[in-house]
Amino acid sequence: MNNRSSCFPVEILPPIKHSTFCIFLQALMWAFAFSRSSLAADAPQWMHGVASASLPAHDDKTDAVVLYSERDVNVQSLDKIKTRVRVVYKILRPSGREYGIVAVPFDSHSKISGLRGWCIPVQGKDYEIKDKEAVEVSLAGVEGSELISDVKDKLLRIPAADPGNVVGYEYEEEEHPVVLQNVWMVQREIPGRELHYSLQLPQGWEYKASWINYPEVKPTQSGNTWEWVVNDVKGIRKEEEMPPIEGVAGQMVVSFFPAGGASINGFGSWLEMGRWYANLTNGRRDPSPGINQEVETLTAAAQTPLDKIKMLGQFVQRDVRYVAIELGIGGWQPHPASDVFAHHYGDCKDKATLLSSMLKQVGVESFYVVINIVRGSVSPQTPASVGDFNHMILAIKLPPKTSNPSWVATVEHPRLGTLLYFDPTNEMTPFGQIGGYLQENYGLPVTSEGGELVELPKQSAAMNSIQRAGKLTLDPSGNLKGEVSETRIGDRASSERWRLRTVTKSSDQIKPIEDLLAGSLSSFRITQASFSNLNLTDQPFGFHYSFEAQNYAKNAGGLLLVRPRVLGIKTSGILETKEPRNFPIEFEGPSLDTDSFDITIPAGYVVDDLPPAVDADYAFASYHAKTEIKGNLIHYSRTFEIKELSVP
Amino acid sequence: MVVVKLNGKDIFFDPGAAFTPFGMLPWAETGVKGLKLDKEGGSWLETTLPAAADSTIRRKAELKLNPAGEIEGKLIVTYTGLEASQRRVAERLADDADRKKFLEDEVRDAIPIACDVELTSQPDWKSSSPSLVAEFSLKVAGWVSAAGKRALLPLGLFDASEQHLFDHADRVHPIYFEFPFQRSDDVSVDLPLGWQVSTVPQPQRLDAKVITYNFNVLNDKGTLHLNRTLNVDIVLIPADRYSSLRKFFQSVRTGDEQQVILLPGGNIATN
Predict the structure, then answer these.
(1) Quick one: B25 and B64 in the same domain?
(2) I need a labelling partner for A548 at 20 to 30 A (CA). Which of A308, A420, A458, B206 fits?
(3) At residue A67, what are phi and psi to the nearest 5 degrees?
């Protein structure tokens, strides 16, 4: 929601196509333009050895293939892991040129060295480009992103990454790991021919490998080194509204355990990951005198415990600015509640920390819930892995024998009691509800005992809706005028509130209405427009507008042709393709939209014909539209409901 | 660039601008001031601006309507002048599959509803000839809709790209078209046997001098001929003229939304 929810650092993965990277591609080109000092030098034997190998199965839309990749992980101690990475691509299409740009993420816990790239062209001599030609970039400064982060990318552009040519690179990484875990992304957007992953552990250490979205592969062992090899891996072609790639790509999660049992930063289950995080956040929620004083002030007028919870929740939601400062372990560990309160800013885990601390002062227990803002990134089949999460919310334990029917984001937990899920980072969602991105999503509540992967509740479709009602009059020339009221709740309201939160000019404030009208009317003029409850998130948000549409109805051969569905289009073109669908379609959340238009027809006119009613009922959605005559009124009604969040 | 005096007239050439038709300049070099160098140090001159008719998108479709309300047939799109060279430049590094998708997406984007479109020819991407011609097979389901005992056929088959040009009432900055251009559509639709044309809309003609729009429908013994032309012969329009421009394009859209009323021989499928 609103781009403010991704609070954890991006997990360090092997170079892969980063969508955010593309934004900065143009800006980087100039930097590369001044650093083109590639040399004619032979590519290494490990590249030449695979350069003319047969290609894995692919079609004519495949941009490139991975001919070979190798990831050798050498765990040297609790505090040091060395990894060598080698990758070779064959570029197949012009749009595959981007595989000639190597992006290696790193942060203050890791150091990249020996980055080198080569190109073996179809004709002519090989090219080489070395580490000193790489540039380091920090991708920050986009709305909702971190203010300060130490995550950077090291970029190297391999020359002549043209169709038919083979490009490759290698580098070494020395890491001081936050956790003793590694993710091997076996599957990606392009097919792979031969992929290797090896793991070398100190004497007496053990590992646990878990596979997801891919059949388990057994390693070969030589001493204290294990090697996994997969061949002919299919690529994942992106489809509109598909689950996130992390949720469908084949991958292996490897956890390492030192001799003698689990370490403080090693885990092989959700329970143990919860313990790791509980330990990492230990003491962070301790209150300060200032927090205690603020809690007293905020809750002085509260009549009930639930009132207190709501007031504290809304305080952190609205009065603590979202500002992320994430350095080193700060990507995972929240700042102390006292600091967050003192500065009145923080990221998602900071806001959760402060709220949890404040709730404690009124006797209410709450738990961190680690989650990913993209539903489908984590499923019950996902092995315990920190890299799957990017956000933090709270589960608030409601006092016994208390309830509020409007607090729908609640579940009964067999051990923890009634839990209310709340996202203090989301400024627009009413207290007691959660946005569609969290519904039926899997999160990890963290208690002192550890973690447990749970599914968050789904709210009813009626909690997220647009109710549009119009009273309109048609004249004999076909001109239509009248007024429309829209009532929006749930995410439908939040999105408009977010869009209008900083808009001050009235001509800009009515742009959403102009957009809506322009989608359905060829010629119109807004004569009055207003909105209601912009900041009262507990109340429905409303648009109210009047308009005139010239030539709305068309005179044709003594007839006046009128479209009773005046506003709002519900069609979608995502399935209008000849390509077979491979992945489920994901909806943002349940929703229920209704339209009701009364059109008064000109005196002396009678209705000659009406369109037939449309009724479509499916398990995942329904659509009903009907046009009726009531005296001199044409009444049009429509309902459109999304019931399920995922359609296989 | 080079200026050549021919029959007393300056003609400009840019030898470095690939795919630019003879006698034309890339749009960025049109209508701008340049310094003509000579022994005396040089003098300022202004490059030429091509006319709207020099850069066109012409769409010729021969379609058949079936009783289910689908129109299907052959479409030929001809890009000329800067419309052709811009596309050649944009796709110069692409492969055949990319170029095919590029052209098919352009047709999809121009049609207001979802459609099936497939490129059936091999356009000449490598030359700097004045035109780039692409042929497609086209099928648009649900283009004709049922209205009781009648069926309605909207006129504007290729107008989607102009539907939302100027949605908002206010404008801060001037409007800048890269170069003058023309769109012309010639669409014929054969009606199913037994179907009759009840009413065709009156011809539309809007003339704002530098921008003109024409739409004409003819019923010729079971075949409808739809002819539409939009001519934009201006590059820069000040913001204070925005409301007039917006009104003009609203009228264009109103014209495109006119419908032919048909009387089906049997029942038309309802979607």
Answers:
(1) no
(2) B206
(3) -75, -35
| Residues of A engaging B, defined by a Cβ cutoff of 8 Å | 60-61, 93-95, 163, 507, 511, 514-515, 518-519, 522-526, 550-551, 554, 556-557, 559, 561, 571, 573, 576, 578, 608-612, 614
The token duo for B113 is: 């509803």
Same domain, B107 and B230: yes
The reply to whether B69 falls in a domain is: yes
**A388 falls in which pLDDT band (50, 70, 90)?**
confident
Q: Which residues contact A254 (CB under 8 A, 6 or more apart)?
A: A73, A181, A182, A183, A184, A199, A207, A208, A209, A210
pLDDT tens for A524-564 read 999 999 999 999 999 999 999 999 999 899 887 778 889 99
- Domain-embedded: residue B268: no
Higher pLDDT pick, A127 / A34: A127
Hey, of B167, B258, B267, which one would you mutate to test binding to chain A, going by the most A CBs within 10 A of its CB? Answer: B167
- With a threshold of 0.95, tell me whether the complex ipTM lies above it: no
* Chain A residues touching B169 at Cβ < 8 A: 507, 514, 525-526
CA distance B21 to chain A (A): 25
For A83-101, the DSSP string reads: EEEEEEEEE-SGGGGGGGE
Let me know whether B157 and B91 are in one domain.
Answer: yes
Instruction: Enter the tokens of residue A293.
Output: 């004083």
Distance from CA of A520 to the nearest CA of B (A): 10
Residue B11: domain span:
2-46
> Is residue B97 located within the same domain as residue B24?
no
A563–chain B nearest CA distance, Å = 10
Structure confidence by residue, pLDDT tens digits, B182-215: 999 999 999 999 999 999 999 999 999 999 999 9
Bridge partners (DSSP) of residue B79 are B57, B132
Q: Are residues B40 and B56 in the same domain?
A: no
**Residue B164 and residue B34 share a domain:** no
Total domain count, chain B: 2
